[in-house]
Amino acid sequence: MARTPSEPGPSVSLQRPSIVILLGILLVAAMVTTSPIAYWLLYALGGLVILSYLWTRNAARSLQLRRRLRGHQITVGDQVQEDFELVNTSRLPILLVEVDDHSELPGYQASVAESLGPRQRKRWISRGLAGRRGLYGLGPTDLRVGDPFGIFASERRIDVRNTIVVYPPISIMADVEIPAGSMVGTSRSSIRTHQVTSDAGGIREFQPGDPLKRIHWLSSARRSQLLVKEFDLEPTANLWIALDLDRNVQAGHGDESTEEYGVKIVSSLAHQFVRDNKAVGFVALSRQGRHLIEPQKGLKQLWRILETLAVVQASGTAPFHEFLSASAAGLGRGTSLVAITPSADPRWVTSLTQLGHRAIYPLAVAIDASTFGPGDSNAGLSQVAGAAGIGFVSVDQGMRFEMIRADGRNLAEFERSQRRPVTLAPA
After folding, report:
1. Which of 21, 329, 359, 376 could bridge to 344 as Cys pair (CB 3.0-4.6 Å)?
2. Using CA atoms in the order 16, 19, 24, 27, what is the torsion angle rounded to 10 degrees?
3. Hey, what's the torsion of the CAs at 253, 257, 263, 266, to 10 degrees?
4. Which residues contact 255 (CB under 8 A, 6 or more apart)?
5. Containing H/E element for 127?
């Protein structure tokens, strides 16, 4: 996304203050000596200063800069590319123009130095690596030009900006088992559907309009007539993923932090359930506010969650147990909840136990903060969770994640991950 607000005019600054002293000396000498040479030097230097000022100001005004971002779905590890075009609309050459970029993306630098002839335009491509998830602005840009004698310099702000969201990659870890009784599609339904589901409900006679791929050839051969498969409508139950963004319980730095591991686990779980055609939602609380995505199915839902994960930060102050209790009303009976936290406070396990009494099926994913640096371990809470009948999965620093993208650039890995049945044994 690019926007071009109104731009202020160029500002001109004096680069050689000694020229003013020299003009003063020549003025005094000309008035005292009345020498024609002194006056000639004064007029020549004064004319040069005026000409340099006008040259510099005109050069800054005659420059135009355009920038266009290539691609808007950018994932960590992708290359960011922008097309630049610098145009000199003046009939005078510009010996040197410095393009000073002020982009926010870490590691991305689009600053260059160019020279332009009269009515000339130059194009180039700026590249950089998106190394960290987040919302970033590309731009604005300052153009700096000067006169051939270096007396003045003019600076002009080109307030053209591109805004990009760097999505976190889909992190694949071993599939997590949701507690028994909360899995979707495990019971049978008396409702028939035209859609293909995992529950085959029976067979019936072929009717015009039925797709050939639904013909049950074995039964058709046995009965000497075309028969097609019928499917039961799967019962639906929502899965919620709750992430603890309380800054007081986080540990580690950069990619090796409990915050980033939490983001990876959320993306892995969201991918797992979207892959299995389950409805998944996400909820978290930070200083920026409440992040809430209602449960839905499909790949678009995965991108919605990834877009939210791109900007979440562990900046909240609310303890996780308070957040879970406050969110209980919006979860609904019969839903599943995966709670992800590095907190060692046993009260969040108590909150999950209370949710279980309200027919919400919880699973605890505990990121052990003590393995990321100074911090309290929550691995000991597994016994408390086990006594309450709550599944408990412990995650330490160094856990292996496989990073893939669902945008087609590594489609083979994405499809392979959809077929990989792996089970993560609870701690």
Report:
1. 376
2. -160
3. 180
4. none
5. strand 121-129
In the numeric block, the tokens 């609904």 are attached to: 332
| Amino acid occupying residue 159 | D
Dihedral (Cα; 112, 113, 119, 120), 10-degree rounding: -60
**Residue ranges in 159-257 assigned as alpha helix (H):** 217-223
Q: What is the pLDDT of residues 325-352, one digit of tens each?
A: 999 888 878 889 999 999 999 999 999 9
User: Is 23 within 8 Å of 49 (Cβ atoms)?
Assistant: yes
Structure tokens at 68: 């266009």
Evaluate whether 69 touches 166 at the Cβ level (below 8 Å): no
State pLDDT tens for residues 399-420.
Answer: 988 887 645 455 455 555 444 4
Counting Cβ atoms within 10 Å, is residue 211 exposed (0-12), middle (13-18) or buried (19+)? Answer: exposed
User: What are the strands, taking DSSP E only, across 173-317?
Assistant: 192-193, 200-205, 227-232, 239-243, 252-253, 256-257, 280-286, 289-296
398 to each of 246, 372, 394, how far by Cα in Å?
22, 9, 12
Residue 123 near residue 84, CB atoms below 8 Å:
yes
User: Model-level pTM?
Assistant: 0.74
Alpha carbons within 13 angstroms on the beta-carbon side of residue 32 total: 6
Order of strands across the sheet that contains 121-129: 63-70, 79-88, 121-129
77 three-class SS: coil
Query: Is-contact 188 424, C-beta < 8 A?
Result: no
